[in-house]
Amino acid sequence: MKLGAGAQAAGFRHLHFDSIGSTNVEALQRGQDRLWVTAGEQVSGKGRRGRVWNSPHGNLYASLLLIDPAEPRRAADLCFVAALALSDAVLATAPRAAALQALKWPNDLLIGGAKVAGILVEGAHAGAGFSAVIGCGVNIASHPDGTPYPATHLAATDATVDVASFFPALSDAFARRLDQWQRGLGFAAIREAWLQRAAGLGRRIVVRLPSGDIEGVFEALDAEGVLILRTDAGERREISAGEIFFAGLKLNSFDS
């Protein structure tokens, strides 16, 4: 497994392990800027809210460490940067799946309404700055059963895609999207591109929060990436964190 040519030219580095506890943990411990850590399997992988992440061979487990990527207030932008990079990599390697893909707020990639990839962004603060590790789990050869969302894998649609072809495309896509982001100065362009690929925009959704579920219409994404929900009572709610659920997903068309 190798970096893409664009990622290499942009100064990214790469370490691969046959087996590892967690690529996120390893990347943070290494402490090297623009370092990718990949693994054939993870034995202690995790998803959002501490959920166990099933990590069989044949799928991609990759983490990117960024040292001082932007001002700390822009840290949440990285979810959208990463989601677009994953989407771009699918466009480059799995064209049949790409025609069915959409991005679920804030950081899941869906194929035909089923989850094919997830992102976990973790940070470490040092003085006035911070470091961020972006973990990407991509179902390429297989997918888990019994998940809150239906799941799928890329090879179910595009039989030729594998980890060796997907990772170079992903590393190149990250290099391009981080350059577009410009340490937060270019978030408006990232936001616009994300909205073009958004799942459920303008549709009724349920937002699951620690305090309970809220229903309404996914009306917009504000300039900071906050989800704007219009409730049945006409109230405009700003949602900065949570999980969304919807039925009858209608995919948006978009350009590459």
How is this structure best described in words?
This protein has 256 residues and is an alpha+beta fold. It has 2 domains: 192 residues, Bira Bifunctional Protein, Domain 2 (BirA Bifunctional Protein, domain 2, 2-Layer Sandwich), CATH 3.30.930; 42 residues, Roll (SH3 type barrels). The chain has 6 helices and 12 strands. It has a 7-stranded mixed beta sheet with strand order 1-2-3-7-6-5-4, sandwiched between helices. α3 crosses α6. The two termini are 25 Å apart.
Please give the order of strands in the largest beta sheet: 1-2-3-7-6-5-4
CATH topology (fold) name of the largest domain = BirA Bifunctional Protein, domain 2
Supply the number of structural domains.
2
User: Describe the biggest sheet?
Assistant: 7 strands, mixed
- Find the count of extended strands (DSSP E, 2+ residues): 12
Strand content: 25-35%
Structural class: alpha+beta
Order of helices and strands: HEHEEHHEEEEHHEEEEE
Q: CATH superfamily assignment of the largest domain?
A: Bira Bifunctional Protein, Domain 2
- How many angstroms separate the termini? 25 Å
Shape designation: globular
Looking at the overall shape, the CATH architecture of the largest domain is 2-Layer Sandwich
H/I helix tally: 6
Residue runs with pLDDT of under 50 for 5 or more positions:
249-256
Mean pLDDT: 91
Helix content: 10-25%
By CATH reckoning, the class of the largest domain would read Alpha Beta
Radius of gyration, Cα only, in angstroms?
17 Å
